[in-house]
Amino acid sequence: MTIKEKIYELLEQEITPEVELELRELIKPYKEGSIGVCQINPIVGDIEYNARKIVKYISHATNIGLDVVVFPELSLMGYPIEDTIDRHPIIVEENIKWLSEIAKITKKTTALVGFVEFNPQKEGKKYYNSVAVMSEGKIQNIVRKLLLPTYSEFNDYRYFEPSKQVSKCENINGLKYGISICEDCWNNSEFFNGSILYHTNPIEELSKENPDVFINCSASPTRAKKEQLKHNMLSFIAKKYSTPFVYVNQVGAIDNISFDGSSRVFDENGNLLARAKSFEEQFLIVNPRKGLGKIYPLAKGLEKTLTEAKAYTLEYEPDLERTYKTIIQGIRDYFRKTGFERAVLGLSGGLDSSVCAVLLADALGSKNVFGISMPSKITSDESKNDAKILAQNLGINFAQIPIKDMVTTTTNCLDELFKTVETKWNGRYKESFTSDNIQARSRAMFLWGVSNEFGKCLPIATSDKSELYMGYATINGDMSGGFAPIADVPKTKLFALAKWLNENRSVKNAIPETIILKKPGAELAIDPKTGKALIAEDALMPYEFLDEIIWRIENKKESYNDMLDSEFLYERNNSVTGKQKIEWLNKFYRRMSFALYKWSILPPSVIVDSRSINKCDYRQPITSSHINYKGLSEEAIEQKVREFLNN
Amino acid sequence: MTIKEKIYELLEQEITPEVELELRELIKPYKEGSIGVCQINPIVGDIEYNARKIVKYISHATNIGLDVVVFPELSLMGYPIEDTIDRHPIIVEENIKWLSEIAKITKKTTALVGFVEFNPQKEGKKYYNSVAVMSEGKIQNIVRKLLLPTYSEFNDYRYFEPSKQVSKCENINGLKYGISICEDCWNNSEFFNGSILYHTNPIEELSKENPDVFINCSASPTRAKKEQLKHNMLSFIAKKYSTPFVYVNQVGAIDNISFDGSSRVFDENGNLLARAKSFEEQFLIVNPRKGLGKIYPLAKGLEKTLTEAKAYTLEYEPDLERTYKTIIQGIRDYFRKTGFERAVLGLSGGLDSSVCAVLLADALGSKNVFGISMPSKITSDESKNDAKILAQNLGINFAQIPIKDMVTTTTNCLDELFKTVETKWNGRYKESFTSDNIQARSRAMFLWGVSNEFGKCLPIATSDKSELYMGYATINGDMSGGFAPIADVPKTKLFALAKWLNENRSVKNAIPETIILKKPGAELAIDPKTGKALIAEDALMPYEFLDEIIWRIENKKESYNDMLDSEFLYERNNSVTGKQKIEWLNKFYRRMSFALYKWSILPPSVIVDSRSINKCDYRQPITSSHINYKGLSEEAIEQKVREFLNN
Q1: Do A202 and A160 lie in a common domain?
Q2: Using one digit for the tens of pLDDT, what is the confidence trace for B347-357?
Q3: Residue B312 confidence (pLDDT) above 80
Q4: Which among B38, B182, B217, B457 is annotated as catalytic?
């Protein structure tokens, strides 16, 4: 066993004083420029909780004798803290107090700890997003973030003042470290072909001092295709400046955002030298100038795509393991950090609830999950049976309770009420979805009942992304819950994920094949044409087509007309008339406009895709439902302006 | 009648070609420097709708022969358009096409129209927030916004690039106009005693060219106490630079945000010369250099407070008319702009639902409101009676339907389910709020049923701000609905508002006095001590105390310890022991932490207060529920750090 292997074997163990001593010996040849990478999972705003971890790792690093120990962005506070620091400035005062006490325990090992700093000036925002450079019992210096991401899930500019000046490099035990914070390293014009958001490049500025190593403290969430982009970009920077790059990322989920960790180190040629685990807290020792590092595997598919081009595709295979881990971490951390332990969900025997059940069982432990089958008169025997088999396969708790009585009682009461309302109001729908919704809402009533009655239990919303786009989800019904695990997973990807789960979990084929094979449908209504339960695709459009629309809008920012002109993958394999395509596109935009409200009240979910409709990621006014997504020709507009002028 | 009076009388009429001709004559003495102020109510993203208004007013201004005609910020697109322009760039292309067609119809009158401009550079955000200066058939110039508000309800920096350079003054018919956009005028260091957000002051820059008039195109929402601040600030600027100031504001509500209009003009001495109506679309003609203007009244109380100091108080009286109009506009525009017309709400005979009913009747017309009394066995006869009388007084539709059958059926089903769950899970609550919630959720089921069954109808969530802070609202129950009218009104203000409504509406005393006199309580549970329905204050704390905590946190950013040290107004009039105060404060913070989830799924509401918990205004991670709001002493922290070090 080499020294390196021995070091990483020891790091897998609990770091006792004996292990520290052993490591202290082992790293001696690597001491100059040695760095402890602390990929921690903070609880946002729980400074004591975070401080405990920080103190622990500083202590390890000090006892082992590392030169530097590095934590992620805002590690003492947790990222993102959002508007909390504006309304409750006390927690900023607290993080300052904790920081100065932590500084006191530092010795020769320099610790880089992210914190919220008060802006000493009256002008500008109240706070800086900063990293304290601490050693010998003192805060030696402070590095401030310059580039403040304010898009998608990021809102840095809401509460942070951007630093105007790049900090000088830090001299630590004879080496120069160029320290930056997250977004500060994402603005290389050459890498992004000139399309950059900011007008300064902090890394370029730091490079002028010829640092020996770059260090970047980050809190960078996982999103589809981002792994590859990040890898390429960091590698590019290391190579461009011939300087090793140490990138320390936060891990763990905070509400809707899942951070993957996967902290990494590139050598001065841009080669990956070390990478921490994904979706796990880890303490890793590296030395980028002396070749000390270990590369932990990413998801299988991702390793493959790292070498591919940056193009977006609908091919899900390389992303399924990451999707799975992202959601698992999202569920687990939301429950743990809010103090919940158990989940209750409806098991319909359909794809959405089945996949949710698997994810919950894996995230919370099967004994902490209760699946409840709540059949109505429309529910088929097959569905009931599938739900039961699924529960058995997963080892989760299971109950079956028919909703017939509730639906009947509610329907009767409502019929009576409708008769009264009808005497005053016109516009009663003849064939409405009212009764469909009664079923969905009765089920949610049961789930919330269980959540209210049993401690630490949250009900689960099982809506998927395709159906949320179409508003094909019932308010106070299937889209109601304490958490929505698959709200950012489109239906076609859910099918792929279900197959992947069946193949890759230790218990194979937990999801009965019949669930994966049958056409999705909520079993809320009977199709008058067939006499069978209505199939969702008949009410909407083929899911392959629907999901491709979503993908084109989100990732390619295509418009209605762009899509009309593009050939869909679906069109290659199926004959679709121009009229049919227009009908589907029209239906999509019409339904999407009216779904905006539902997006606004969706429970916390976990963002998985490169773009989402999660309200922490994307905000569109509900009153914008009259947007003309098709646009008008210049001639038509000219004509209309003339009409307006004459009226 | 003076010329001025005649002008404003004509402007109250429909502006026919004859009226235009008459005005053309009348304004002759005021022509040089005359300005048409177009305070329009746009639909965000509905460019055709907005363009129609813009063309109409440009046409009027041109035919009347005004020098300039001015529209609010982003008037062609509507403000705020939010992330929509990122995901659907087509609407930006559309607004450009419309703008260039509108430019073609301009003649001698210069039109200032707000629009979203593409950033021609690859670097930076994709768009500018701009104003087009158009005349003689062309876009003559473009003014770009420099200061991008990104706090509270504002997110400008998410999608706009800040302009780096102040535009030159515009020469229009011999006069120099210094044009700016909204926030650009909110950064005067002297006025704000050095506490400013940005490092440049565009107005100061513009002043160096000695403009004859300042013009500011705004979209500035109404919030408590803002009217006074805005008045003082604009007056200050006009006086400081000895330059008249024309401030044109958007009117109308967009989702949660209500813009009050009240566009205004100050003369070069800082005196108010003109002010447009509040909460109404208006076309006003002014000439700040020749004393042409009319001051429409604000709310009564606000006129009074304009002269008072800027201190925050809990005194609601001056703010009730504004509160009323803000909510009315919020409801009306949300319904109109999303295509809904009718509302259904539960009438409990309590304060919240009663005030909501009045507001809905006034906003939508009483025939468009259905109040439904849904008594349970706990509901008192008095409450049932009050609900009915209220409906009669308002002339709204009314139905009564007992929820007994539904509650019984649901309770029976749930009891059965709980027995099964109990065999697997411990932690069943002995005396739970489960059954309280069944009542609230059954009612919501009825309301959503009516909404599903009858066209263009939304159910209403009646939760108030005090109870939302305490999480004292039922998910899928009273806090569920398509819109939440009073979610930003604390309970004590609701009492004041109820009295105000009874005194100031044309139909006096619509709300039965018994409703205002009785102690609030949801009538969901029986208090075992009294045998009567549980009173909310017993479960929470006195509303006066609760609302003062909220006010101190929101407006004064006080901490737990600050409040412990402050004397509450409530304490002056009531004897409160130190122990009692601590108990209430502890309860407040504990409940607030667990209410964060509920805030995240609150339906669209209308922001009324200077600060709110509306999710478009304030975002706090739900997983931050472990924040230690009390803080720790330095000694305690030092002690803990030492402990962490030794473990």
Answers
A1: yes
A2: 999 999 999 99
A3: no
A4: B182
